[in-house]
Each structure stands twice: as C-alpha cells, then as structure tokens.
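Title: Comparing notes on inverse folding

I've been comparing how different people in this forum approach sequence design from structure. To keep things fair, I'm posting one structure and asking everyone to reply with a full sequence. Here's the target:
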C-alpha cells in the first residue's frame, strides 16, 4: 500500500494516468533546462571552475543524468516485486525533486560539483516513473486503448523537451536559471503527495491477472470443442493454488527477461531508433547549412528543431492509436481467418511449454474461433509461454509467463512496428534524391515521424514479451540497452560517417574557422551528395 499518514485517495485510472503523464512532462521539461540556457550555464561553469573548456563540462552536465537513470532503473525495476508501483514512483519523484532543489542551490553556493551530482541524482529519481508506470498503463488502460494511452504518455517527451527549451531561456534571461529548477519542484510537490496516498489495489484493471482458475476455464472451453484426454482432465481438476511467494534475485530476473528473443529484438529496436534520431539531431543544423538551405546557424537550428518536435508530437500518439486499431481489427473473426495465410495460427491451449502440449493434441478447427490468435512470422514460436502462476507483491496469483492476451497484443504490435520501420527506411532513402529545400525537409520530417510512431509499440512489445512479474525490470534493462547502444555512441558514429562522406565540412583543428563557417563554405556545399548519403547511411547503420 502506498498510503500517507493513513490517507488514501480514490482516483479513476484516467485521472491517475493524467497525473503520471504530467510527471513525465515535467521530467522532460527539466531535461531541456540546460540546453535551453547554454550561455548562462557556460558563464556559471567558467566562474566556478576557471576552465577555458566550458563546452566540455556543459556536455557532461547534460548527459550525466544517464548514469543515475541506468542505476535507478535497475534498482526500481527490481523492487517492483516487493512494493506498490505508486509507492516506488512517489519515492523516485521525491528524489528527483530533491535533486532539483540542489541544482538550484548550486548557483548560490557557486559549486559546479553540486550541480553535477544533482543532475546524476535526477536521473536516478526519474527512473521510477520509467519502469513502473508503462506496465501499469498496459494493465489499467481500457481494453483496446493501451496503445493510445502509452502514445500520449510518451508524447510528453517531445512536448516537454520543446517547452523546456523555451521555459529555460525565458527564466534564465529574466530571473536566473536556478528559478527554473525551483518552479518545477514547486509544481511537482502536490502531485507527489497525491501519488503517495494512492493505492494500486483500489484501481480496476482492464487486463485481469491470469490465475489458475482462469487456466481451468481455458481448458474447459477447449474440452467443449475437442475430445478430452486424461492429461487435460487431470490438469483441469488441479486445485487453484498459487506458487509460494519468492523474491527473485537480479540474476534470476536478468535471465528471465533475456530468455525472450522477442524482448531482446525490441530492446535493440529501441536503441536503433534512439541512435537514428540522436544522430540526426546532433548534426541536423550543420546538415542544413552544408546543403545550402540556410546561411546562419540560428535559423537552421530553429527550423530543424521545430520540425523534429512537430514530428514527435504528432507521430507518437498516432503510433499508439495505430496499435489499438490493429488490435480491434485482429479481434474480428473474419480478419483472424484471413490473417492465417500470412501468419501462424496458434490455439490458446498450445501456448504452453512442451511438457503440457500433449494435454490437447487433437486437431483444432480455427475457423471463426475466439480461442485462436494469429502470430505473424516476425513473432515466432514462444515455447516459454505457460499457464503456470506466480505471486505478485501482495501474494496474489499472477501469470508466471506472458498471457494469451499479451501474445495477441504482441502479434499486432510486431506487425505495426515492422511496417513503420520499413517505411522509415524507404523515406530516408528518398532523402538522397531530394534537391530542393522544401522536399528535403518534408521527407526528412516524415522519416523522423515514422521513427516516433514506433515509441508506444516498442514499449508495449517490451512489456508484453516477458512475464508480467518481470515487466518493470524489463523496461529497466531496455533503458540500459537504449543508452549503451543507442543515444550515447550515436553522435560519435554519426560524426565519423559524416566526416567520411563530407570531409570538406570538418572544422579546421587549429582555429582556422568555426563549424558554422566550415559548413557554409563552397567546398562543403559542393559535397551535398555526400551529406545526403550521410542521412541514409546513418539510418542503415
């Protein structure tokens, strides 16, 4: 129970979702404070450290949250077995708020070190929201709206980041950047108090946990259409008891989630998506300058930033709605029957481990059946799926493996992500042939939008491809993979590719000019073809 001083607030799932989305928005507003006021933060760094390389320390400030985020994700993901998700979220956001206060105070005590530590701790605190809330959304959103809810939740990322830039710039030039941290902490404080008084038990779930009694019902339904066997009867007659409560270790959790090849693929997909978007964002303004579409860096940066933000704001919720639409289509019997031509027809009773598959080995007629799901080839064979049960944080029985509902969801998500990825690749290929500024920007924006479309689907895929008791930890590992293989190395690899395809656009090493001057030089603009190929190769790599 996450109850504060004996109080408990009764909220509808929608109201709770709005609160969590608001928290996610504030987190990404916070991410935009430093890049939105680089001049003021550079002045602070020079004044407190005496360095002449303030840009390096500024970059360290902006990326330092990753250290705390990775560690916090593993920590909060692991403790999801033992504590209410709302309690963990309240603890994490409280830590994040304390980090914001310390970040603001660092200005008055003139300490770069305090500011750096505060940014690391802020990443640790926000990890609680990242790990615990998406699985909660997946189980508590109205049936058929999980994708839309997750899409709206993740839309807070581009919206918050874009607003954070303007918010930081406005306050830094008027009352000072420390106020930006203090205001966001004051805004989040009442929300955290409400989160601590919420209980997950009081909110209805649209996706009830699969218990042994549910398994008995499934077997009974199958037996009504197929001749019963001795094994089936014995299984159906088994008592509905849950497994003893067991606190798993980190090693056991890691082994459990990595045994799912589909989960691993989704983790690599999210890392690839982040790598493409971060690589393009890092060199976007230089690319527009080098192609001769703009003559000054400020205009190029503004236009590129606005277009990418619009793509994220529009495409992220669209991706969620697309997944929901595919789910609704898949539930129609005629659609399921026609879909079996391009996928694998799997009876529910076969979604069990090999030791139980002989319980229902008779032929199954899949026409107009509601106990059949269509798994497309991209999903494959999930032999780890079983109808065994385990216990959650309150000792209640929950599915020890992905449920049939999870597999139906996963099948549709995989198909949607498959086509969105291919469309993105096609559009990035078309960019190579776009000569005019309007066509280049339009196609590049559409390609970026296809990347953002996958946000909700990838999250749902990571959640649905592992047992429910490991979903929070699965998101923690996914965050680790995303940063280690995605947004951290991406600017380095993209820079190497760009320098190889457009060497004339590289800034002279010894003060012979700056990056903007090099990007607008005649030699650099003569390598326009190489810069377009850079966009394609960055996407393919």
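Reply #1:
Here's my take.
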């Amino acid at each position: 129970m996450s109850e504060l001083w004996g109080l408990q607030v009764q909220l509808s799932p929608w109201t709770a979702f709005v609160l969590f989305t608001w928290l996610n928005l504030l987190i990404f507003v916070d991410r935009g404070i430093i890049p939105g006021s680089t001049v003021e933060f550079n002045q602070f760094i020079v004044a407190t450290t005496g360095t002449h390389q303030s840009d390096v320390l500024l970059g360290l400030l902006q990326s330092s949250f990753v250290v705390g985020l990775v560690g916090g994700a593993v920590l909060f993901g692991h403790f999801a077995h033992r504590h209410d998700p709302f309690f963990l979220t309240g603890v994490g956001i409280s830590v994040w708020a304390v980090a914001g206060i310390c970040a603001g105070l660092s200005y008055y005590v003139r300490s770069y070190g305090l500011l750096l530590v505060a940014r690391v701790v802020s990443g640790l605190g926000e990890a609680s929201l990242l790990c615990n809330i998406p699985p909660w959304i997946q189980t508590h959103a109205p049936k058929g709206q999980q994708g839309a809810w997750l899409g709206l939740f993740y839309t807070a990322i581009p919206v918050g980041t874009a607003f954070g830039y303007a918010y930081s710039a406005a306050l830094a030039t008027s009352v000072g950047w420390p106020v930006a941290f203090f205001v966001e902490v004051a805004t989040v404080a009442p929300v955290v108090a409400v989160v601590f008084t919420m209980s997950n038990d009081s909110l209805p779930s649209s996706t009830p946990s699969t218990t042994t009694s549910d398994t008995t019902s499934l077997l009974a339904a199958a037996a009504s259409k197929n001749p019963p066997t001795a094994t089936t009867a014995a299984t159906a007659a088994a008592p509905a008891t849950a497994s003893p409560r067991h606190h798993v270790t980190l090693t056991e959790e890691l082994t459990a989630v990595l045994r799912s090849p589909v989960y691993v693929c989704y983790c690599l997909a999210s890392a690839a998506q982040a790598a493409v978007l971060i690589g393009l964002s890092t060199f976007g303004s230089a690319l527009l300058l080098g192609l001769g579409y703009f003559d000054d860096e400020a205009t190029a940066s503004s236009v590129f930033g606005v277009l990418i933000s619009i793509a994220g704001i529009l495409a992220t919720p669209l991706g969620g709605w697309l997944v929901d639409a595919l789910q609704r289509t898949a539930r129609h019997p005629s659609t399921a029957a026609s879909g079996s031509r391009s996928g694998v027809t799997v009876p529910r009773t076969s979604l069990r481990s090999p030791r139980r598959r002989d319980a229902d080995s008779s032929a199954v007629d899949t026409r107009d059946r509601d106990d059949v799901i269509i798994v497309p080839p991209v999903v494959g064979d999930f032999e780890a799926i079983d109808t065994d049960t385990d216990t959650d944080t309150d000792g209640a029985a929950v599915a020890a493996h992905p449920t049939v509902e999870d597999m139906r969801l996963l099948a549709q998500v995989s198909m949607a992500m498959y086509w969105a990825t291919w469309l993105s690749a096609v559009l990035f290929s078309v960019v190579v042939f776009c000569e005019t500024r309007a066509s280049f920007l339009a196609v590049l924006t559409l390609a970026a939008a296809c990347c953002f479309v996958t946000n909700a689907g990838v999250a749902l895929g990571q959640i649905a491809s592992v047992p429910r008791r490991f979903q929070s930890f699965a998101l923690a590992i996914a965050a680790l993979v995303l940063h280690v293989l995605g947004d951290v190395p991406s600017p380095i690899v993209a820079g190497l590719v760009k320098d190889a395809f457009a060497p004339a656009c590289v800034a002279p090493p010894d003060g012979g000019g700056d990056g903007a001057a090099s990007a607008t030089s005649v030699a650099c603009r003569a390598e326009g073809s190489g810069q377009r190929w850079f966009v394609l190769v960055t996407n393919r790599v």
